[in-house]
Design a protein that fits this description.
Elements lengths: L9 E4 L11 H9 L2 H13 L4 H11 L5 H10 L6 H10 L3 E9 H4 L9 E5 L18 H15 L6 E5 L5 H4 L4 E5 L11 E3 L4 H9 L3
Helix pairs in contact: 1-2, 1-4, 2-3
């Protein structure tokens, strides 16, 4: 299979709540450290009370003082991923298209998806593990950064923004949903109401992909 004359597509995936159903990287990491209750409070502050992403990261860093690479690996492996991620990304590659993950979550977690077939991953820039440095607030992504990164990826892969598909679930995806021609709300909350081309509820990315794969 190859892309049509209109050129390749770029599929842009959110991570928390989208590829991971009903959870987030921060939640899964915190479970490994026994601070699930504390991170849940931070998540509520972020979602409901407008806690900025950089402040969330600074506070999470305090909770994760003992975090190791082994904790991250266990969190990644144990997360409730949607089924079919590798298969979908393999088909995207076979079509000559591109797939990337853009997430506000730590880059040391997000980058692990390169091994599953993503062409690129972008997460918030965190210090290396084990932590010896504080979080650099300037490296923490916000929703507007998703659009900027999408534009950079378009330039890198030679894809027009009009050939992008975005997949997301929450308010952090609203801005990117407004600038792409095709957007899929995956197990989404009310923040994406009216912004999505398609809406999906379930646990299989192959079913999500079917909604857009025929529109080449």
């Amino acid at each position: 299979m190859t892309s049509t004359a209109s050129g390749p597509r770029l599929h842009l995936f959110d991570l928390d709540g989208t590829l991971i159903r009903g959870s987030a990287a921060a939640v899964e990491i915190s479970r490994q450290l026994g601070v699930g209750r504390e991170i849940a409070e931070l998540e509520r502050d972020f979602v409901s009370r407008g806690l900025p992403p950089d402040e969330f990261a600074v506070r999470a860093r305090e909770l994760w003082a003992e975090l190791t690479v082994e904790h991250v690996a266990a969190a990644f492996e144990g997360a409730p991923w949607l089924s079919g991620i590798r298969e979908v990304w393999d088909d995207i590659r076979k079509r000559g298209d591109y797939c990337a993950v853009i997430s506000l979550s730590p880059d040391f977690f997000v980058s692990r998806l390169l091994e599953w077939g993503a062409h690129a991953t972008h997460g918030s820039r965190w210090p290396g593990l084990p932590f010896t440095e504080p979080v650099d607030r300037a490296g923490i992504l916000n929703p507007a950064a998703k659009v900027k990164i999408a534009n950079r990826l378009c330039a890198e892969f030679g894809v027009g923004l009009d050939r992008c598909v975005a997949y997301g679930d929450s308010m952090s995806d609203a801005e990117i949903f407004t600038v792409v021609p095709c957007a899929v709300a995956v197990n989404a909350d009310h923040h994406l109401s009216g912004l999505a081309t398609y809406t999906y509820a379930g646990d299989d990315l192959r079913e999500v992909y079917e909604l857009v794969s025929l529109q080449q």
